[in-house]
Amino acid sequence: MGKYLAARALQAVLVLLGTFTLAFVLLSVLPSDALSIKLAGSGDSALGPEEVAALRAEAGYDDPLVVQYLRQLGGLLTGDLGTSLHTGAPVRSMIGSALPHTAQLAALALLFGVSAGLLVGSLAAHARGRWARELLMSLPPLGISFPTFAVGLVLIQVVAFQWRALPSGGTDGFQNLVLPAITLALPVTATVAQIFNRSLREVLEQGYVDTATAKGAGRLRLHLRHATRNAAGPTLTATAVVVGNLLGGAVVTETVFSREGVGRLTADAVTRQDLPVVQGVVLLSALVFVVVNLLVDLTYPLLDRRVTLTEATR
Amino acid sequence: MRTFPRPQAPRRRLRLATAGLALPLALLVTACGGAESTGGSGDGGGEPQPGGTLAVGLNTSVACVDPHQNSSNVTIFVARQIADSLTDQDPETGEVTPWLAESWDVAPDATSYTFHLQEGVTFSDGTPLDAEAVAANFDTITELGPAVAPLASTYLDGYAGSEVVDEHTVTVNFDHANVQFLQGTATITLGILAPATLALTPEERCAGNLVAAGPFVIDSYQPEQRVTLNRRDGYDWASPVLEHEGEAYVESVDFEVVPESGVRAGQLRNGELHVDTIPLTEDVPSFEGNGFGVVGRPYPGVGVNLIPNLERPLTSELAVRRAVSLGADREEIVAGVFTEYDQVARNVITSATPFFEPLDGLEYDPEQAESLLDEAGWVPGADGIRERDGQRLELLGLYHAGRQAGPMMELLQSQLREIGIDLQIRLEAPADLAAAQASGEWDLWYSPFHRAEADAARAVFGFSGRNQNRAPEARPVDELLQAQSGEADPERRQELVTEATQELVDEGYAIPLYELAGVMTHADSVRGFHFEASSRLSLYDVWLDE
User: Fold this and answer.
1) What are the backbone angles phi and psi of residue A105, rounded to the nearest 5°?
2) A90-93, long-range: CB within 8 Å, 24+ apart, which pairs?
3) pLDDT in tens, A120-155
4) What pLDDT digit, counting tens, does each position of A92-123 carry?
5) pTM, whole model, 2 decimals?
6) Which one-letter DSSP state was computed for residue A161?
7) How many beta-carbon pairs below 8 A join chains A and B?
8) Within an 8 Å CB–CB cutoff, is residue B209 touching chain A?
């Protein structure tokens, strides 16, 4: 187990380093830099091109890329993600203050999404009529094809403005969390429902299900006791992927619902080309992926005794 | 795959899972609350009533609230309410008027300004606003330099230091003539901050640690969410340009960050917001008169001009530049894609700018445009676009996401097609804009520059300014632009400004199109709502009739 964790930790470091390098390369081929944008793009400064060039050089943008890369990597190793070019605040504290809001949102969205997905998937697998089954299974593709943006706006229009049941945005309380969580949960529901349903149907066709039925197991007992547990593996993997996507979904959801969070931070940083912030967010999402995948792998043996962790290291 | 049976199901865990299913549904049913409607109260006017909280919608986070460092709209909206300036500007005439400075003397060569400050003014931390404090403000901005304080440094161009003459008299010196400085002192960009604030790092100030002498003080600052202000007790030095004296009317102001315009509009209708600072142009008519009001005023400064690139072969040709100007139907543009508050351009600078005078040569005259192009040898080709020596008259116009900029450029494209010019348009993201500007690979540049000072024209077009035309060497017009910026006599300066801007138009260095207005929507319950001279939010006179 200890050996396994060490191997996985090394793997995680390599993934993070790779992400950092890739992000650096991509950001450095962008046609401009944040300082030039701050000075010229705002349309308000009257600095001449030479003055801008001098300031760029001073800020280190003219250094060879290798030097810039090593400088940033060195900072990263000491836990310093740099400072925002826009506000001068440390990137680490910006992410730190935005992250809890997004974590709350993502957790609730995951709760909604996985619950609803399991429910829809189960109902469809057990539905007796072909018609009911097909109706239920047409829900996930429908859910995925609605853009998050539009879903959010419709929810705001109806629930917040017409019914006045929930606030239309903000970060403050639990009430403000419900609509964005539903919006963000929709693609989760769709993915989970689809994968869970497929696995469940596969399981239900297995011989041991017939054995259990012959022994007199009822339909509900069969579902809860035998099938769900065995169908959970692929669903768990799919959920892990979805968790990573939640961060992307938060960009849109947090903007539509005027929420504070990593998503809004990302959107603003990209617009302002605030490179240190963009890079910090990219690293954060890589970290989330790595951690979630590790958690899933650690959970597998609990669900299925035939899986051992040494096997997973391959 | 891991689909083999495992017959021991943990019953307890499954029950928890079912509870998980029920919980979200319960939440959906029970969670309620939300905003109460405040509704607009008909007309009536009457005596201003103090009190209440004004909710103002912003479209982006207030990433930095320090007016010295940041000149984005949201920063200005917030900072203008908390910091006062040495002078103010009459929104009607553009005249610079007293505020913190009761009076001032300008050296004839515009290299020094002596301000006589009002007595008894204090910052909200209780320290006096005296000559030392004013000097410290200008010193600090100059130390920050243009990388941190780009616009403020521009206003203080050539700053050589401030002399404290006595407690209430300060002389600001420049090493060369700086005529635009006086108007700069009226802007929030040179708003006066407390010495304790100036001693903080730029980051700390960005993050809302700002003490000044305005009618409101910052109560809480959450840049991504909201900024709340409280009325300052004992405030008694309002600019005479404003409508009342003493303290502000509303007790507090909530600036709410709501990025999505449709949500802001809904919140305004619902009474959650009193003011939307940036409504969608197409939504404006549906608000007007239906329990809501609209205020609009052209931004001062250089209006929306197309600026030709003199380094490029086609736009280096006077006939082409003038033809674009003559072929642009400004009336149709304004009527077609803008509000009634936006206006047809009558000068390079807008009608809200001091020293504005209407110019000649900005009429729509497609016949003259065509004959100019004919004379220059551009003849219509098979597809109607003109050609000369096998070259098509194709121009690349860059623009960025301004209000209605896209529809405007498309309309202009179809207008120019009529006279045989193929205008290619390209929307540039802010990130690409700076790079495009540096590369010079464009023919026409769309670029407004907001400032209530005629010197904005020099800042944009002048060889000593941004030289947006990319002129290879100084032109005759640059002398005029330079001369007006050093001319302290208003009458003579008026002549020079008009002469310079007329030359910009005649030479086709500028193709003025329209004056973009600052437009805001507000509930009818919001009274006394008006813009300051830079067409930005001023909340001192606002009161709530509800």
Assistant:
1) -60, -45
2) A91/A276, A91/A277, A91/A279, A91/A280, A92/A280
3) 988 888 887 888 888 888 888 888 888 888 999 999
4) 999 999 999 999 999 999 999 999 999 998 88
5) 0.83
6) I
7) 217
8) no
